Amino acid sequence: MGTTRIEDLLKDLGERGIERPRPELAREMRGRIPNRLICHRIDTINIIVDLRISRMAAAAAIILVLLVVGAFWGRRDAAGKRFFEDGKLFLQYTLGGENACSAQAVEKLARFRDDLVAQGRDVVFYGDQADLSDRYAIIMYWKCADDKYGVVLGDLSARTVSANALIRLHTHMLQERGR
Fold first, then answer.
1. Tell me, what's the pLDDT at 110?
2. What percent helix, strand, coil does the chain show, rounded to 5?
3. CA 154 to chain centre
4. What are the beta bridge partners of residue 88?
5. I want to staple 70 with a disulfide (CB 3.0 to 4.6 A). Which of 28, 34, 74, 79 is the partner?
6. DSSP state of 122
């Protein structure tokens, strides 16, 4: 198409204007859509989609409803109580993200530290200062016997190590902090 032809068409468009489509055209186009492609508004999932609720919020709402129902009927037996506790943990991990898991682990280790202190053991606890993503970081350690120490590392593994190994682990921790 030449530029003169395009210019002529643009002039004609300016003179005539844009014609409005006939009113029945929209009805005809809707009639051509197959019924299997038309969503039914009664379906619960479509209601959630229509409200534009994210999948995470919908999952949290479903779990919350299950927890409420479990609170009424589940407290009577051990399986119901376990369901209730698992639901609470699921919500905590889902809404809290990665930090919820590490915070709970540090909290349990703090209780373990308190138990060791109650037994009269010397315990060093780094807690929130420790890097849980570093598998060789020391979270806590305590003296067990002659030249042996119990250590909980960043990957939450517990080991019994010698004094030299404990010094090497401390050295690694200090080098990582320096970076």
1. 86
2. 65, 10, 25
3. 21
4. none
5. 74
6. -
Q: Could you report the per-residue pLDDT of 133-146, keeping only the tens digit for each?
A: 788 888 889 988 78
Non-local CB neighbours of 139 within 8 Å, separated by 6+ positions: 106, 109, 125, 126, 127, 130, 132, 152, 153, 154, 156
Q: How many CA atoms lie within 13 A of 122 on its CB side?
A: 5
Contacts 24+ apart (CB under 8 A), 35-38: none
Question: Can you read off the two tokens belonging to residue 118?
Answer: 């109650």
Could you tell me how many residues make up the chain? 179
Two tokens at 116? 């060791």
Strands (DSSP E) contained in the chain are: 123-125, 138-145, 148-153, 158-162
71-92 mean pLDDT:
65
CA angle 146, 148, 149 (to 5 degrees): 130
Domains and CATH numbers, the chain: 1-96 (no CATH), 101-179 (3.30.310)
Q: Which long-range contacts (CB under 8 A, 24 or more apart) does 155-160 make?
A: 156/105, 156/132
Residue 74 or 158, more confident: 158
This prediction has a pTM of 0.47
C-alpha to C-alpha distances, 146 to 3, 91, 119, 159, nearest whole angstrom: 96, 45, 17, 15
